[in-house]
From TrEMBL:
The keyword Glycosyltransferase applies. It holds the Pfam family Glycos_transf_1. Residues 25-204 form the Glycosyltransferase subfamily 4-like N-terminal domain. It comes from Gryllotalpicola kribbensis. PANTHER family: SULFOQUINOVOSYL TRANSFERASE SQD2 (PTHR45947). Keywords: Glycosyltransferase, Transferase. InterPro entries: Glyco_trans_1, Glyco_trans_4-like_N, Glycosyltransferase_grp1. This is D-inositol 3-phosphate glycosyltransferase. The keyword Protein biosynthesis does not apply. Residues 404-415 have a biased composition (Basic and acidic residues). It comes from the Bacteria. Residues 396-415 are annotated as: Disordered. Residues 215-367 form the Glycosyl transferase family domain.
């Protein structure tokens, strides 16, 4: 007979269901990739259902992601043309395809990362076979509406339907998670589901390189160059900075807003100071963080910003919108500043404040970012999900801190 300690150490077979996965570049895809690779490093077997990258190449094969070998099941997909790169699998075939894959691999648990397509069919197929189901919500329907062609007067009705649909699918899961406590509260209110777990996306802190000496007044933004990221606010803000600061802004990422932002920067007279790096390798991304002095995050719809976590792991102060999950990472006056959402003047003032800090205050903020990010190390995330896959009780990792706790040095010890 196997005792509980032996059962806890037994490797698992996990099936991740993803509507977006590498090589897509977004928070949900990055989280799923890191989760899958981390589970493989711990000795588990990981299969991934994800869209094909071409309508002409589908099937099952192995792929290497984050240095780990994953068993991929790439299903037929088509491009969603209102969006610049998003592809979608066929909803009407998802349950049948999911059932076929489940019968082939017989996983211990299924973990879907989206309710839009993959979660819809995969959850039904798994439950009918008695397989444990975990659901993680990375996206609010509010973020998706702008990528539809629905007229604005009808969008409130679409949003109401979308949340009702999300609730129906998420209720099929044995456990529901989202990256932060604030996002969990929002999800519970919107869906009526109780007991949503707040489990951070996690980042491997040691993979990033802080630089405490270099000061070049370099501002960096990393992410999709789309409307939801509010980059127009950032470009208008940097145009308000004193030219005597000799500042520069590097935008790392790509998207449909790039040409608009290039024109806007030129119109505002800062075209030579704003550069667009486009999509870059992981190595070049880490270098971009290291050479920067501050991360600017103007987005108002982050359930948890992996980019902000990566920047903090690189020792960067952060200026972020005071919205959604960002305040749980950016502690105002400690490792950066929060600004009023969509307020370019306030963003400019907060950026200038950081760029003109005395060296000792600047280093203090960098060290604060490094200290505060420790509770979001991916090893905690992996351990928590392992427990959920086994049906064991979990205590949510620390994801939000009140004002007094933020000043408690015990947080740095990982309490």
């Amino acid at each position: 007979m196997t005792d509980s300690s032996d059962a806890h150490s037994q490797p698992l077979t996990i099936l991740l269901g993803c509507d977006t996965f590498a090589p897509d570049v977004n928070g949900a895809a990055r989280f799923a990739e890191r989760l899958a690779a981390g589970l493989v490093e711990r000795g588990h077997t990981v299969h991934v259902i994800a869209p094909s990258r071409s309508a002409f190449r589908t099937g099952a094969w192995d792929e290497t992601h984050e240095g780990a070998r994953l068993h991929m099941h790439r299903l037929f997909s088509l491009r969603w043309y209102p969006h610049e790169w998003l592809r979608f699998m066929m909803p009407w075939t998802m349950r049948r395809n999911a059932g076929r894959i489940l019968d082939e691999i017989r996983p211990d648990a299924v973990h879907f990362q989206s309710h839009f397509v993959v979660g819809r069919g995969l959850s039904l197929a798994a439950r009918s076979r008695g397989i444990r189901v975990i659901a993680t919500n990375h996206t609010m329907p509010e973020n998706m509406i702008e990528h539809t062609t629905v007229p604005k007067p009808l969008q409130p009705l679409l949003l109401k339907w979308a949340w009702r649909d999300a609730a129906e699918i998420l209720r099929r899961a044995d456990a529901v998670t989202t990256p932060t406590r604030r996002a969990a509260d929002y999800l519970e209110e919107a869906t009526g589901i109780s007991g949503v777990h707040a489990i951070g996306n996690g980042v491997r802190v040691g993979d990033y390189t802080p630089d405490f000496e270099h000061r070049g007044n370099r501002i960096v933004f990393v992410g999709r160059v789309t409307g939801e990221k509010r980059l127009e606010v950032l470009v208008r803000a940097v145009a308000l900075l004193p030219k005597t600061l000799d500042w520069s802004l590097e935008i790392v990422g790509d998207g449909e807003q790039r040409h608009h932002l290039e024109r806007l920067a030129a119109q505002l007279g800062v075209g030579e100071r704003v550069s667009f790096a486009g999509l870059v390798s992981d190595a070049d991304l880490k270098k971009a963080y290291t050479r920067a002095d501050v991360l600017a995050m103007p987005s108002t719809a982050e359930l948890q910003s992996i980019v902000t976590m990566e920047a903090m792991s690189s020792g960067l102060p952060v200026v972020a919108a005071d919205a959604m999950a960002l305040p749980h990472l950016v502690h105002d006056g400690e490792n950066g500043y929060l600004f009023r959402p969509d307020d370019a003047q306030d963003l400019a003032q907060k950026l200038e404040r950081i760029l003109t800090l005395p060296d000792d205050e600047f280093r203090r903020m960098k060290k604060a970012s490094l200290r505060l990010i420790q509770v979001h190390d991916i090893e905690r995330t992996l351990t928590t999900f392992e427990c959920l896959y086994r049906g064991e009780p979990v205590v949510d990792p620390v994801t939000d801190l009140d004002t007094d706790e933020r000043r408690d040095d015990s947080v740095a010890e990982g309490r």
